Amino acid sequence: MVQNHRQGNWTLGFLSLLVLWSLAGCVSKSLPPAEAETSARKYLQALRAGDNKTAAGLLSVRATQALASAPLPDYVKSQGPDHPPELGPISKIQHRASIVSPNGDNIHLVEEGGIWKLDSGPWVPAPGFSPDNTMDLFLRALQSRDCQALVSCAPPGVRRRHLRQELVDGCEKKMASFQGWVDKLGASKRSFESLAPNRLALPFGDSGKVILVRIQGRWYIETL
């Protein structure tokens, strides 16, 4: 009886796995690989030409959300004087596509709405690309009471010392008191003060101050 039950479970599990494999095959074949390369090249060409509308339309939902309220030209300006690179051949196609640039960096694409869109990599917006962007993301998370997003604004060292769920739970307990910062931070004109290389202060309200730190190219909120 037990043996039959185990055999039944194994059979159901195997059938489920077959279904998942078949679905994975359908997803991976839904768009030709060449179209991923076309999207990547079209995006970088649009950036080089200053055609920000076309470039923005080729960003994934995640990459678009990373911009927060910043226009795409602000992100491009934050990358310095270099121009977007030319690309090499496609390196692999699975549920995602990766295109390799001559210097070895990967630009990753995802399929959204029947189109390959830029998701991550060099010259693709990522959260915290500038101090203003980090503050925009922080304020948006406060206004929506999104503790997961607030925790993402903390430096990696803070998140390594604590379990993510511990930080989220602590945030949720203090969320009511956090709301007092929304109006003060939103009303203050942003004027960042340099404290050290890769470390800034943003005064707000009568005596408040946000300290931001830059780690591996991304800005985080260190203290508030």
Task: Describe the protein in words.
- It is a single chain.
- The chain folds into two domains: 33-120, Roll (Nuclear Transport Factor 2, Chain: A); 131-223, Nuclear Transport Factor 2, Chain: A.
- The protein is 50% helix and 21% strand.
- The protein is built from nine helices and eight strands.
- The strands form two sheets. A four-stranded antiparallel beta sheet has the order 1-2-3-4.
- The longest helix has 27 residues, at 2-28.
- The model is unreliable at 1-29 (pLDDT under 50).
Short description:
The protein is of the alpha+beta class. Helices cover 50% and strands 21% of the residues.
Number of domains: 2
Q: How are the strands of the largest sheet arranged?
A: 1-2-3-4
**Structural class determined from secondary elements:** alpha+beta
What's the helix count? 9
Mean pLDDT across residues: 76
Distance between the termini: 63 Å
CATH C-level name of the largest domain: Alpha Beta
From the alpha carbons, calculate the radius of gyration and give it in angstroms.
Answer: 22 Å
State the low-pLDDT regions, or none: 1-29
Q: Spell out the helices and strands N to C.
A: HHHHHEEEEHHHHEEEE
Question: How much beta, percentage-wise?
Answer: 15-25%
CATH architecture annotation name of the largest domain: Roll
Number of distinct beta strands: 8
Give a short account of the largest sheet. 4 strands, antiparallel
How much helix, percentage-wise, in residues?
A: 40-55%
Overall 3D geometry? elongated
